[in-house]
Amino acid sequence: MASQVVRLYLRVRHTKDPGVYSINHKNFSYRNENYVFRSIFSKESSQQEIYEEIGKPLVDNIMQGINGILLAYGSSGAGKTYSLLGDQGQDGLLQRVLEDVFQRARILKPKKAINIVLSSFEIDKERIKDLAKLLPNNKNRFNEETLEIREHLGNAYIDNLTVTQIDSLKDALHIIQEGRRLRKIPDPNFESLSLVHTVFKITVSQKEMNVSKAGTLTIVDLADSESNQSSILKTLDSLRNLIIDLQQGHHASSDESILTKILANNIKHNCLTSVLFHVNTSNDQTCHNTLMFSNNCYSHENDSGTESLVFKSQQQMVRVRKLQDEIKDLKHQIDKTQEIHEGKLRGFGEIIGFNVDIEAVFGNNPGKEKKSIENHVNSVEILDEVQTRNKRLELKLNKNSIIFEELQKFELKNKERNASQIKALEDQIKTVKLEIIELNEKIQENVRKKLNHRTEELHQILISNHLLLEEKAAIIQNLPLTLQSIASDMRAVIDYKELGKSELENELSKKYKQNEENHSKNIKKIKQDIDQALKTLDNKMRVFDTECSIYIREKYERIKRIEKEIIKLYNLYLDQDRLIKNIECGLFNNGIKPIYITIHDIPKPPQREKYPYLFKSLMTNGVLTSSKDNNFIKISNSLFTKKYSRTTKNSFYAVRSSFRITFPPPEKVVEIKPDEGDDEEDEEGKDDIKLEEEEEEEEEKEEISEKSIILREEAEKIQKRTVEIAKKAKEMKYETNSLEVKVRDKEVEIRKMTGERDKHRELYCNIVKSKVENRVVIESQKRLLDKFII
């Protein structure tokens, strides 16, 4: 937080004993103590002088959008209220501030929008009471209404406080007078009026174009400083801490009292704070307390460098000099006492600590010696006290010297910083001067060019005006002839207009009819186009439906054929399997020599995992049946004999294995003899046929799987095509909707055309009326000319 300006002022009330104090420019000495202020106002100072010194800078700031605070501090009877509110003969600072604000607002009102707001309240025992709310029953108002402080976005405000917009100085003075009247309510305890803080807030807001700014001046008439009320003492202490924190750039603690909370909104930004202290030198205690309170508040140097005085450093210098003088006086007294008592202390150095032997040592003059010894003892005690005091003063002096050195360093830094700022400002001024010179030259050149251009334009205008005057003079001379020709022309025009009126009406009616016919034709065409588009879409959809149904029917028939072929192949496989088993059992050779066929030579039955579509088609056609739990397959009795029908678990190989159990193993198979060669050759031929049939079956199965894959792809294509057709149908619906919108737009255009037709009719009527009026004017001018000619 940047340090802010705090200015301290003093006003002294007239007393009977003027020798108690003295004023030397900015120094005020009271009872041999010096105090430094920015300005000191004596009994000869007028209210206007005080306003020029204190009030005018505050008004300048609030008109620039900078907040300000004015605090009046002092004891009862010191003149606080007189300085702020004045009396019947003299206006106070508040009235003069308002007068100055309204004068400046009156000047700025043509350029800016200015709004002035006033509010007043008082704080009594940390309770807020409104002074600007005018109620019919003012006696019991304070007992009925107490306002509260609330916070919004870190800013404190008083809830339900009356904020009055004032448009004139008279209204503002009336509100202040009513507030003073409310403060002067009769009360048996008169001192209760001095235990109240009275606050006046003036807010000036300005707006120019899109830029707005606002400044608030808070004027506070503090309670009497000599009161012992805890709330007032707390408020004054928190106010002192707030001022010190502001100047040192620390965070201002504003939560200690209601008054500091209210002032916190003003001091958050750059703010000028002025404190006017009032003293009445007739009362020693209150005057000293007021001056000591002011001693803790000092003005700090502002960031802009305008405030160059550091009042605390001056006060410290005065204190250091005073302490140095006191130390010198004390050293002189110590030297004197040491010279007087040095000889006696040497003789009685040992006796001083022993009270028993004092009378024996005194001799003939015991009283005088006793007194002298007592004096010596007292002097030694005084010496000890003086030495301790001297040490304390030396410590204070060392501290003050350190502070003084720090202040000197601070001043040197400020001087260096100011010097660098001054140099930078001088450089800026030089550059600005050069820019101003260049701008002046450019402005002069532009002015010359504009003057030359304007002179040429004026010369041309004069020439053109001269020619116009000559032309008008010639026209005036030829007026009677021209008027006669105009009259004849007007007659012809009137005749033409009478003829043209009917022609225009006919033309307009023809155009209107043509437009209506064109619009109706366009609407019919649009409807026909929409109907044709819909018909074509319907035809396309029907054709597509027929194509889809034909395609699906063909595919369905093809699938049925494939299923029939699969069943035939399966029956062939069963027949082959039956033949193999009959051969093994010796059915064809009367069971004399059964033949054993190895497992590798026997064709393997189809399995569900490899041929799922085969099993599915067999089950749908009733060739195979499956149980609910799908644990086994039962071969139908329609295709097998009762001798070979069995139940197995989901495969045909188990059936084969059940038959093979009754046959002998490979070791016991009888070898084929030479005379049985023919039978073996027949069997080998049959085996070759079976192998060929198995190969054909496998090829057919592969073809069936390929066909099923093709069918799947074609089914996917059909699905895609149906999706595309649905999209096309949606697009056609969207097109039909757009066509309907176009039809509506055309209807709107037709309505507009009818409106334009009505406008043209009105224009035609107006033209006819104006022509008639012109004819009347021309006839009147003709009459006047005839009179003039006569």
Automatic annotation (TrEMBL):
Keyword Coiled coil: yes
SUPFAM superfamilies: P-loop containing nucleoside triphosphate hydrolases
Gene3D superfamilies tied to this protein: Kinesin motor domain
Keyword terms, alphabetized: ATP-binding, Coiled coil, Motor protein, Nucleotide-binding
GO biological process: microtubule-based movement
Domain of life (superkingdom): Eukaryota
Coiled coil feature spans: 313-340, 415-449, 509-543
Domain named Kinesin motor: residues: 5-300
Stretch list, region Disordered: 669-706
Positions contributing to ATP binding: G74, S75, S76, G77, A78, G79, K80, T81
Composition bias type Acidic residues, residue spans: 676-703
Family note: Belongs to the TRAFAC class myosin-kinesin ATPase superfamily. Kinesin family.
Designated name of the protein: Kinesin motor domain-containing protein
Organism in which the protein naturally occurs: Stentor coeruleus
